[in-house]
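Let's do one together. I've listed all components of the complex below, 1326 residues spread over two lines.
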Amino acid sequence: MSFTLEKSYDIFMIPNSNERDTSSDRNKRISNIVIESFSNGGNQMNNEYGAEKQLLEAILLRYEYMERSGNFFPQTTEAFIKNNFVFESQKCYKSKVDMDTSYNPPEPSQDHWMLNTPLPKYDKIFVLTREEGVFRILNESGKYIKELDTYFLSKAKYLKDYEKMVGIVSDGPLKSLCYRRLSYLQNKFQLYLLRNEQRELHEQKSIRHRDFYNIRKVDTHIHAASSMNQKHLLRFIKRKMKTENDTVVLEKDGKKITMGETFKSLNIEPYDLNVDILDVHAYKNAFHRLDKFNHKYNPIGQSTLRQIFINTDNYVEGKYFAEILKEVFKELEESKYQHIEPRLSIYGHKKNEWSKLAKWAIKHDVWSTNSKFLIQIPRLYDIYKEKKYISNFDQLLDNIFTPLFEVTNNPSSDPDLFRFLLQITGIDSVDDESKHEYIQFDKFTPSPKDYTDAENPSYTYYMYYLYSNIAMLNAFRRLRNLNTLSFRLHSGETGHPHHLIDSFLTAESICHGLLLRKLPVLQYLFYLTKIGISMSPLANNSLLIPYHRNPLPEFLMKGLNVSLSTDDPLQFHLTKEALMEEYSIAVQVWKLSPTDMCELALNSVRQSGFEDKIKYYWLGSNFKNEGALGNDISRTNVPDIRIAFRYETLVDELSHIFKIYKK
Amino acid sequence: MSFTLEKSYDIFMIPNSNERDTSSDRNKRISNIVIESFSNGGNQMNNEYGAEKQLLEAILLRYEYMERSGNFFPQTTEAFIKNNFVFESQKCYKSKVDMDTSYNPPEPSQDHWMLNTPLPKYDKIFVLTREEGVFRILNESGKYIKELDTYFLSKAKYLKDYEKMVGIVSDGPLKSLCYRRLSYLQNKFQLYLLRNEQRELHEQKSIRHRDFYNIRKVDTHIHAASSMNQKHLLRFIKRKMKTENDTVVLEKDGKKITMGETFKSLNIEPYDLNVDILDVHAYKNAFHRLDKFNHKYNPIGQSTLRQIFINTDNYVEGKYFAEILKEVFKELEESKYQHIEPRLSIYGHKKNEWSKLAKWAIKHDVWSTNSKFLIQIPRLYDIYKEKKYISNFDQLLDNIFTPLFEVTNNPSSDPDLFRFLLQITGIDSVDDESKHEYIQFDKFTPSPKDYTDAENPSYTYYMYYLYSNIAMLNAFRRLRNLNTLSFRLHSGETGHPHHLIDSFLTAESICHGLLLRKLPVLQYLFYLTKIGISMSPLANNSLLIPYHRNPLPEFLMKGLNVSLSTDDPLQFHLTKEALMEEYSIAVQVWKLSPTDMCELALNSVRQSGFEDKIKYYWLGSNFKNEGALGNDISRTNVPDIRIAFRYETLVDELSHIFKIYKK
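Okay, and this is what the predicted structure of the assembly comes out as:
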């Protein structure tokens, strides 16, 4: 694997910065650098290339896991793995000719729930079975279907891989090496910036019409229940108090209670209500109090009001929640360029949750061109167990996954759910990561059916069972020619940093990832495999880490695939434009340049679950290409030199590691 | 002067924190504290009460200057000076009975420019004369009018007072003392907060309807030319390019140039334009480059476009600038609770500037219930001199002040200007403070007529001539029963910290005041005399000091009279709601509580130039009272305990200092 690096940006390289070097010189130089790095940092290395081997092992593991679940893995890294990497000169972007320059948006579907499209009829209806908590698919004769069963992941294999990753992440010399590589990446970027900042600005200015305001931005991490700001929710509740005073909104002990009676029992008149009383905003007293923070979802501290207004499953059949969400969507559609990926909850304590949620969405037509739903699954086994909703962990998994497999097997079993799932792009796993984990996951941990402990199982336990089922579900849906789900989890916000090992193996992208700053090896691996990190510095600022100490700007400099998101506008934002507010603060506090802003926005679009045909329209026809060739500045407003720099830097790093590959 | 302090808030005081102390005990205790402070900090003190004497002298000077100009001086401090201070118990606020609770806004005037009201006719028309750059007013027999002439301030007196202030501000022991008092204030506040934060929240929640969103906020420092955000200006220019392509917008060398021709010469089509090309936003490359920053006012770097779009005096008679300003006003009126005090420029290089500006405002009806104009005067003598607009400093003063005095003397001499002035609330002095001052102001500095140097005179020179003329003008306008002008200057943003001495003497309130952090004595004096400080941390962040190092939160804790303002939304803000964006960032980065936010907003209303009848409606009928008695939480949303704490703390400090007064 050899290539000539034609630099389109300006940077001093050591040595002979300004001379183009031949590829053989170059390879020699790269080897020198790497060996030098290793000999400095790796004095306890077993053999000469121990560090590369470990990094390679980790990359290959990630590749295997992404192949299994069918989630995103970067082209460039994949090419190195497949040993067919061909360097494409980043200089030729000036003569890109195959760019589709039509700016026509894809035809919006009039029937986005496909209610008028007949359900598919499948020849084969398979036999579904669950073994040790994981779905398996059998043919009529009761045998595993080979083409699907290759996607099965056993608990033993996961534990082995996890253990290997713990070893890699904790290896002292490797930590030193990765820390040094990351510092190198950061310094290289700063050097690049000092020499090319004006050129970047110039490239941006030379593009007609496009600027930060009219490039696409996706809020990659936002909870549906808190996607409106506090003033919006306040106005909505006030309006409903006035117009629907006599609507029955609750049933308690067989007694029907109206909106008016509810507020009367709280002693509140519409005029009285204000955001102070509503009390959903997180001020400084939420710092390091994720427990307290969750109460902030209850308006006026009343879970009743949360139940009435921000819930899909209640006496009014989620009418109000649908209405306010649609108001949020309307504002986004008016803004045109702002998009969101809100999370709706599936708890897993009842089996009809999916079905109800699907009916709710379709009945109220909760849909927008500017939004794509994900499903969040809270890790609350212990609470359901205590409340006797479920008696073991297997029931939770059963409630969550059985409806999905059944409807994939036989669409007519629940047509609404079938149609709803076509609009869902991913699964998120959420909860307070800082809670102590009493039960570790190892070979002695009971299997789901036998897991009847009062304590919650560990993060890793959840991840294995979620991932392995999703991988199988995706394989099944691919077979059925249906959309698949991305596994995009909350990880590394707080708690044990090793949660990030789970997400390195299983997640397409993560929310938060703050704790990557404590794990240099994993941080470097996230870089090499371009795992999306959706960061919410305002949320972090309220809960965990002061704004100016947030690692986002450092991650961005190093070239990690970070995007900006709001998490909970209800709790954290003051203006009507939560995402713009999030960008504004980041730009100001960290002094980001217009190119930085546009790069963050570009990352957010790439990380998002919007369809390829939409991304084609938003980013340009070559958007799947990872270098400057894939960048259409007239749509992204990111200068080609920035993209070229990122691409070539990644290729450089990968070359160091892959030089021993198949040696 | 003795009083009983009845605490309405909860704080440990040393000693006997929880017992109410008798007034005699208290006085003894206060004396102990003060003497102790002095004996620690003041080992070079001439006599026992040297520090108090110096502080007293400074306060009395400030009082004298504010009396002269008729600008705001706080009631409480004044009462100490007049030796008639009576402590009003802050506890009785629960039984405030004389509060006017009507929420009716004052009748909006249909004829705000009073075009249908005949001009006043005065019996006496005075003889106006200018002596050494300062206006004097004579009767027909050529004698000074005694009642006005007491307001005259001579250059010698100003220099003497300034010098005395330099001595006080630079006194080492006094610096230590004030530094310690300020630290004490900050710590006392933190102690107060730790014990009362929940009570504050409770008080806020107990108030119906009112919250941060529906309390009044004034953007106390914003330049009219940059009061729209970049996206707004972009849209406006694009619209005009499309709809007024053939409108003549310029005349160059006798040739008339249309809008279309202007943009053609720049090679720009309406569709092409974006915010990157517009290039008015200040990114990190403006840091410590106030010179560069001023160029950011020129869209696309073209002063021609600034001339066309954001200027009151051009070929289209300021039509476009009026239009876009009215769009800004409209948005504010829709927001209802957000107000601004934009600055319009008078340069002083032509005598008809005032007249033209007045005609512009009235012709285009540039007026809003949500806005009050101030006039900013740039300190650009050197540029006008170089361009030969003027030949000495006196001509600048003549151009600025003569129209004002003449129209006050005889309204019919310029009816538009007369009516325009009724709507103006103050004068601001602006420019880059960091420019080196080649010419100091001392007794040898030439008087204005003889000042023909190529260099700009010093800040102090400007301040003396502006202040002394404004003081005389205000006296004259009071005599005529007309509105007077506040002197509210840019001061202490950068450059020599001693600019703050000028503003301590002459200004009602200041913009920026960052450098107060370098002058503890002056900072303490600003506290004692409650001088308004309008701070713009986002602007500072771009130009001078990183956000998280801004002194605003420290000033707020100590109890200085600070407000939040945007300075230049065109350059610094991204969302449509610049002021809310400014608050949002402050709240997030500094973790301000809802009470802090509301206190900042309250300060902004108090500092603003809106009429008393408006403030009566906004803040409550007792708003002139400075303690909790003057606070109507149902309108301000600031808890009484916070106001009581601020008030009692100030009374405490003043008691320390005034105990030697008239001894």
